Amino acid sequence: MLEPGAVAPDFELVDHQGQHVRLRDFRGRRVVLYFYPKDGTPGCTREACSFRDVHQELQRAGVVVLGVSPDSPQSHARFRERHGLPFPLLSDPEGKVAQAYGAWAQKTLYGRKRWGVARTTFLIGADGKVEQVWRRVRPDGHGQEVLTALQEGAGGKP
After folding, report:
1. N or C: which end of the chain has fewer CB within 10 A?
2. Among the options 44, 117, 124, 147, which is catalytic?
């Protein structure tokens, strides 16, 4: 489990356009890195749209938003287009980045246990260190929750 003050693990994933995205490419900027289970599901759609709705304000604060799930780049492209998402969605098909961030957990659904993404968000500072972590995220209004924390100075000034 990553905690505030830890160095955020670098990664390279493919985005919705098939382009390679590395965390280190954003050094010098703050990054909101949010992990979600699946494109198009009700909770994941509400969470993504909550970030969409505050995206301009996050950009004005100099913050980059990156969404990560196990879905394919093609699925991400459809999801982005359907909901007008203005930020990159990254494909982590084997869950390796989610595991490195502690956002991979055993879940139980209808009595069956399986491993999958635990809805988790990280605010990563310009220096590459974790500033804040949101675990067990509730999708509704999460984008605003993150923006409010930034405005209130969580993890330093926006």
Report:
1. N
2. 44
